[in-house]
Amino acid sequence: SRFSSFDGLSLLDSLVPPDAHNIEVSLGVSKSLGKGKYSVFCLYANQFRDLRERCCPSELDYIASLSRCRNWDAKGGKSKSFFAKTLDDRFIIKEIKKTEYESFEKFALHYFKYMNQSFESGSQTCLAKVLGIYQVIVRQPKTGKETRHDLMVMENLTFGRNITRQYDLKGALHARFNSAAEGSGDVLLDQNFVNDMNSSPLYVSNQAKRLLQRAVWNDTTFLNSINVMDYSLLVGVDTERRELVCGIIDYLRQYTWDKQLETWVKSSLVVPKNLLPTVISPREYKKRFRKFMSTYFLSVPDHWCSQGSSDPCQLCGTPNDAWSQPKSLNGISA
């Protein structure tokens, strides 16, 4: 590029009016490359930039990270979405569905308000931070055909961590078991977590569990208020630091008519009578999610952990100050 990083950032500043919610940047590619022209639509550009100022090293670092990515196999979920990860491991890029993009458009201002309040008040939250939503449109010059890609950039919760096991928890047990062999790297599910807690439990201190419950309570109250369900708590086991890394992910989907229909069909025809389907109303989802996290995260008394040492507690495997950060339980800043 004929612009330096500083000049490029200044150029973008000049293109974005202070009161603009969304901006579109059109770019042309040399014909010698044989590619079509494309444009990038930046949803809520200024609001996302304000959020990144709170939790990213700098805007230039964010741009530099996104400029170097690789395809990434997330090893979990049923959506088969495209994933990429920045080479510095800081950010994850996920292609989201059109319905998720449109849902975020509807509740975006509530999201920014909630995140800002969490930063300013120091209230507990474990929402994995969404740091940008982009719509990329590729146009083929010969045919005029357009291809749309809706992309989300979020913090990588496991950045700088040695994660040996991961769980994706929705608070449901029906059809929530992954039979993958141990050590495969696959993301495990709710039934795996329950089984593991029975056979080889992971303990946290009472204080850590209270912080987790407070964060889950705050976040699920917010997500219920914007009619969102089907989110997950991603839990990573960092054996090197003997800590748990937690964050709520996949919270872009609102409870629309098709999800209500799915609830009815699964309740009537698929799910055993003593179990609730995975897809239920936001209010019921919130209650079940809270109950699961309260029940299956096992705690020990705080005094069982050594207060005079920085070494991890032998029983709970968690440093004394673990999970005490005001912005996220795992103490990771994006």
Automatic annotation (TrEMBL):
Classification via InterPro entries: PIKfyve_PIPKc (IPR044769), PInositol-4-P-4/5-kinase_C_sf (IPR027483), PInositol-4-P-4/5-kinase_core (IPR002498), PInositol-4-P-5-kinase_N (IPR027484)
GO BP annotations, alphabetical order: phosphatidylinositol phosphate biosynthetic process
GO molecular function: 1-phosphatidylinositol-3-phosphate 5-kinase activity; ATP binding
Residues annotated as signal peptide: none
Keyword annotations: ATP-binding, Kinase, Nucleotide-binding, Transferase
Limits of the PIPK domain: 1-297
A cellular-component GO term for this protein: endosome membrane
Superkingdom per UniProt: Eukaryota
CDD domains, A to Z: PIPKc_PIKfyve
Chloroplast among keywords: no
Parts forming coiled coils: none
TM spans (from-to): none
Protein's name according to its UniProt entry: PIPK domain-containing protein
Organism field: Gossypium raimondii
Lineage per the UniProt record: Eukaryota, Viridiplantae, Streptophyta, Embryophyta, Tracheophyta
